[in-house]
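The step that takes the researchers longest sounds almost clerical: writing a folded protein down as plain text. The outcome of that step, for a single protein, is printed below.
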Amino acid sequence: MSVSAALRRPWLNSIRWRLLAWLVGLLVLGALAVGGVGYRSVLAETEALFDYQLRQMALSLRDQGEIGPAQAQALRNEELDFVVQIWTADGRSLYASRPHPTLPDRAVLGLADVSVDGETWRTYGVATGLRVIQVAQPRRIRRALAADAALRSVAPMLALAPLLALAMAGLASMTLRPLARVARDLRGRDEHTLAPLPEAGLPDELAPLVQALNQLLARLGRALDGQRAFVADAAHELRSPLTALTLQLAAVARAGDEPARRSALADLAAGIERSTHLVEQLLALARQEPGAVPAPDAPLDLAALAGEVLAQAVPQALARGATLDLQADAAVPLRGDAAALRLLLRNLVDNALRHGAPGGHVEVRVEADPAGGARLVVDDDGPGLPPAERTRVFDRFYRPAGTQAEGSGLGLAIVRGIAERHRARVVLDTAPRGGLRAEVRFPPAEGGAPTAEASGG
C-alpha cells in the first residue's frame, strides 16, 4: 500500500485501532466458537428430550393404558405435533390421536425415522400381545423447535457483543493513555526544553522508551552545552590574537624607519601565523564534534604516515635545535581516515617539540600489535606533566599553570577526538627521559569503546 493511501486511512497506522480490531476480532471468533458449540449441544439435548418424550408416551400406553400428565400436556400441544397410532397385531389401524395427511402407515419397533410422501417422521413403537403402539412426530417440527431453543441459548451472547466491543474500545484507550501523555509532553517542548520526561507511574512496556528518550535528551543537552561552550571559548581565544594583530598593524603604520618597519612586519607575520594556526585547530576540532560527517575509512600504513609528518616537522625541529627520531616497523597496516590520523600525529609531534627541552630529543615509535591493531608512542625530554594534570589537558583551551610554550590549548583535545573516531585509547605517562609520553593504542578491526587515560606513573 502506498504512503498516500495510508495517510488517507490513518486508522491503519493507529495502535489503538489495530488493538481494538484484534480484540473485537478475537471476541467475534470466540463468540462464534462458543455459540457454535452451544448451538450443537442444545440441538443434541433437544433431540434427546424429544426422543425421551416419544418413548415415555409409548411405554405409558403399553404398560398403563394411559399417558402421564407431563406427556399428556405435550401431546395436546399442537406446535409439538405428537401423533399416537395403534394397530392390531395383524396390522389394522385402530386409532390416530390427530388427523394428518401423511401419517406413517406402519409401525417400527423402537426409535426410527420413517418417510411418508416426502415428510420424515421420528417414531417410537412398542408391541403387546394384541396391538402395536407408536408415537410419532414430524422431523421438521423437531428441527424448528431445536433450532429455536439453540438460538435462544446464544442470544444473550449476541446481545452482549456490542457492549463488550465498547468495553474493549475503552480498555484500549485507557491502556494507551500513558503513551498519549508522553506524546503530548513531547509536543509541548521546544529546542530550549530538554528536561527529562517524568517516569513515575509508567507501564513496564513504556518505561524503557521514556528512559531512552531521557538519555537522548541528556546527550543532546550535553552536546548543546558543549557547542555553546566551544563557541564562547573560541570567541574568547580569537579575541586576543585579533587584538594583537590590530596593535601590530598599527605599529607597522607608526614605524618611522625601514628597520622598525621590518621588525613590525615580522611581528605581524608571526601574529598572522599564530591566528591561522588557531583557526586551523578550531576547524579540526569542529570536525571531531558529534554530528560531524566523518570521512570514510580506508586501508593505510601508519608507519608511512609518521614518516611524512616527521619530514614536515623538520624545519620546526631545526628552529628549536631539537632532533627527531622515528622507530617504526617496515609497515603498520591500519584502517582509518588518513587525513585525520596525519593531524593526530602532527599535533603530538608539535606538542612534543613545543614542550620539550630546547635542543632536546623527540622520539616517535610506531609498531604493530601482535594481537591486532597498532601502537603509536611519542616521547619528549621536557619537564613532563604532573599526574594531576594528565586528565585535564584533554579539555579544550586548557593550558597547565606555568606553561611558557605558545599554543592554542587544543592539540590534545583534537588528538582525543580523532582517537575516539578510530576507537583508540590515548594514554599519557612519563617518558624514559623524564618528559611526557603520549601513547595511542589502536584496537583490532572490531575493537572496543574508545577512552582517554592518564597514567599515574
Observations:
- The first strand starts at residue 83 and ends at 88.
- The chain has three domains: 15-169, 207-285, 296-454.
